Amino acid sequence: MRIITGSARGTTLKTLPGEETTRPTAERVKEAMFSAVQFELGDRVVLELFGGCGQLSLEALSRGAASATIVDSARAACGIIKENAVKTKLFDRCRVICSDWKSFVKGMAGRASYSLLLLDPPYKAGAVDEVLSLVLECGLLSDDAVVIAETAADGVPVPPDGWTAKAYRYGKTYVTILRRNGEGER
């Protein structure tokens, strides 16, 4: 696994052994995710709630996002994320938090605003809907926020009221891009 393009292009990333703890995003899926928003990444403030090895946030930073907060509940994953951030020379623009996603979101309510939310939770029907509901309830997204979610077929999110979604399929993986109605439409 590597950073595809940008300032850290070609840097290989470390992952935790086995897919029980994390499921890294396939390179072709990651490329498709970022191709869909490539001209919108500049100065985005990123929140990734299921960090794994940090590859999605680090890709966004490499492509021009301003900063990233990467959350994961596993201490080993947080260590790998920090190693990868240092290796890509993007550590100074990262904040790595070892916490479960719910505690982090509730704790940040009214204290932060993110313009790019990256979600790649464990594949489970309704997982992204649950996360997005709490993130919106806690007011963590800016008005121009974009949400990118990776799921299995049974986990494709239902857009919340006032949001639109476009889903793309890559084998068994679905990538859904959500935006507030009227934001970023072409």
Structure description:
The chain is 27% helix and 26% strand. By secondary structure, it is of the alpha/beta class. Strands 3-2-1-4-5-7-6 form a seven-stranded mixed beta sheet, with helices on both faces. It starts with 26 loop residues before the first helix and ends in a 6-residue tail after the last strand.
Q: Order of helices and strands, N to C?
A: HEHEHEHEHEEE
Number of helices: 5
Radius of gyration: 15 Å
Q: Segments where pLDDT lies below 50 for 5+ residues?
A: none
Oligomer: single chain
Percentage beta strand: 25-35%
Features:
seven-stranded mixed beta sheet, about 25% helix, alpha/beta, about 190 residues, 7 strands, single chain
Quick structural overview:
The chain is built from five helices and seven strands.
Task: Please render the helix and strand layout as text.
Layout: H1 27-36, E1 45-48, H2 55-62, E2 67-72, H3 75-87, E3 94-98, H4 101-108, E4 114-119, H5 127-137, E5 141-151, E6 163-170, E7 173-180
Parallel strand pairs: 1-2, 1-4, 2-3, 4-5
Antiparallel strand pairs: 5-7, 6-7
